[in-house]
Amino acid sequence: MRKSGSSIIVFVLVGFAVIGIGMQLVTNPAAFFQNVLVWVGGAVLFGALLYFILTRLRGRSTGGGSSSDMQKYKQAVKQSKQKYKQPKAAPAKKTTKSAASITKASAARKKRSIKDRSRAPQLRVIEGNKHKRKKSSI
């Protein structure tokens, strides 16, 4: 297998880094550990800062509701709730009702108001080939 020139350069640089770290660890271990702690602390601080900035930006765009899509969604939910809201039942009275008033109430319930009819789902009639079927059965 033939190795490219760039991979050989990378191996040489990694080798020099390992030799340098080893020499610093042998000659001055206190400075080495102090240097490592500074680098790790800096990386943690940078990561925490980046995390908080990204979560704040993400929170604004989706959870905060400032996005136009989120506003449209909330408006659609509000309209849907208004359209399909259930009327609250009146508390039942314990008085006895006559038979005539019961039949009147049931007749009133059976009639649908104009408002209820306007909320009916929009249905579409699909015309099929009804004539073919009738001719074939004759």
Automatic annotation (TrEMBL):
Transmembrane stretches in the record are 7-26, 32-54
**Compositionally biased region (Low complexity):** 87-106
For region Disordered, the annotated ranges are 61-138
Q: Any idea which UniProt keywords this protein has?
A: Membrane, Transmembrane, Transmembrane helix
Which NCBIfam families does the annotation name?
SA1362_fam (NF041554)
* Name this protein carries in UniProt: Uncharacterized protein
What is the originating organism of this protein?
Terribacillus aidingensis
